[in-house]
Design a protein that fits this description.
Two copies of one chain form a homodimer.
Chain A lengths: L3 E6 L2 E8 L8 E8 L16 E5 L3 H6 L9 E5 L4 E2 L5 E3 L6 E3 L1 E7 L8 H4 L3 E8 L2 E2 H7 L12 E8 L8 E6 L2 E7 L7 H9 L9 E3 L7 E3 L4 E6 L3 E9 L2
Parallel strand pairs in A: 4-15, 6-12, 7-18
Antiparallel strand pairs in A: 1-2, 2-3, 4-5, 8-11, 8-16, 9-10, 9-15, 10-12, 13-14, 13-17, 17-18
Protein name (chains A, B): 2-hydroxyhepta-2,4-diene-1,7-dioate isomerase
Keywords (chains A, B): Isomerase, Metal-binding
Pfam families (chains A, B): FAA_hydrolase, Rv2993c-like_N
């Protein structure tokens, strides 16, 4: 796998291939340019070296749909790097759950080591944004109490299709579609805790490393999916993350 | 930092220095041998590439001391690799908590990639064991609901002093001491879910990577600690993990 700058030209997408890993060194274009498609595919734009920090109940309307109050401070949980997959990778439903749901989320990708940053300074540590699906086993989420298994299983964290460094996270649309039908349709202006606050809050507990990811919470409209479905997450102005859902034979 | 085999001779401890990282290649002794002490210290024996998976309420007497039932299946949560520190490293109390507790635990260190292993086969994937302190901000644990912050902050996962490959995890003592006074004194025979079951159960959700760690839960007797204290975790036949507690100025 290699890294590349993604360049849109009309309805075509080109990849300007980079040498090395741009998270840890300056972007070094190799001069090679490939059109996306025809045997070329995108992988997850980042596999965190350390962690995916996710935020629960960060849209009031979503908290309400499960009968929960809005938290007074961000409710943090972790997803392991082994849960990350990329565009078009299958979401594999585990044997131990019969209720798996999608959650469209704006994901923040950290660019620089940070600890104890203020909300005012937080955005300097953000590399960019991508789409995330915080896939959740609803039955295990309820019975387990802690969400390590229900939201941490392999393939439960699709990320992609790329990292966009130009998104303004203050007010973008966060949409999910199941088999083409719109299910969630929120906007980040309705986040209970906004991106600068979240980066600061997380950094007051945990050192954030380059490539760590913060999932900012999901808007109302969540539902279940099943084998054979295709689920999409779209962040306005960023792109679409699409994944098929399968069950192991 | 370098890896070494730890060799006890009487009351002296020697380090037989290895080349490379023995998690990823055969142990390669360099011939160099150093006595522990005199400017030589141990670091955390492993920093997981991926995750620390921890198990809540896995001793009935500990579940009862907080008024909780014993779970019907293991309650998993995650601690990030940024929370790991080693022997004698300070546990740094965060500004946002005034109630931080210790939890002595037997830690399982995974040696080989595994996914969907049975309890019968699980032990083949275990490299060895170490002592862990599942440091917990009790106030944030209650108010946050999910434990990502309360049990995931920097320095909340002391591990050490070394990885012991010869421990039989079926019935060893798990002790904590605060300033020399014994606080917890349990035995792993009282684990609700034993080590082979836990490795299997976790692997049915998440791929375990070499260096990943499973904290098996804490026995009854937990309590709080404060700046100036020294907390110790001892696993019978393995060793003692000792850490000072500090608050940032």
């Amino acid at each position: 796998p290699r890294f590349a700058l993604v360049q849109q030209e009309g309805d075509k997408t080109f990849l300007a291939v980079l040498g090395g890993d741009p998270l840890y060194m300056p972007a070094m274009p190799t001069g090679e340019r490939i059109e996306l498609g025809d045997g070329v595919r995108l992988l997850a734009p980042v596999i965190p070296r350390s962690k995916v920090v996710a935020v629960g109940r960060n849209y009031a309307a979503h908290a309400a749909e499960f009968g929960n109050d809005v938290p007074t401070s961000p409710m943090l949980f972790l997803k392991p790097n082994t849960s990350v997959v990329g565009p078009d990778d299958p979401i594999v439903l585990p044997d131990w759950t019969i209720e798996v749901g999608y959650e469209a989320e704006l994901a923040v990708v950290i660019g620089k080591v940070c600890k104890d940053v203020s909300p005012q300074n937080a955005m300097a540590y953000v590399l960019g944004y991508t789409c995330a699906n915080d896939v959740s086993a609803r039955d295990a989420q309820k019975t387990d109490g802690q969400w390590g298994r229900a939201k941490g299983f392999d393939t439960s964290c699709p990320l992609g299709p790329w990292i966009d460094t130009d998104v303004n996270p203050e007010d973008v649309g966060v949409v999910s579609r199941l088999n083409g039908e719109t299910k969630q349709d929120g906007r980040t202006r309705d986040l209970v805790f906004d991106v600068p606050f979240l980066v600061s809050f997380v950094s007051e507990a945990m050192t954030l490393l380059p490539g760590d990811v913060i999932l900012t919470g999901t808007p109302a409209g969540v539902g279940l999916m099943d084998a054979g479905d295709r689920v999409e997450v779209e962040i306005e102005g960023l792109g679409v993350l699409s994944n098929p859902v399968v069950r192991r034979a």
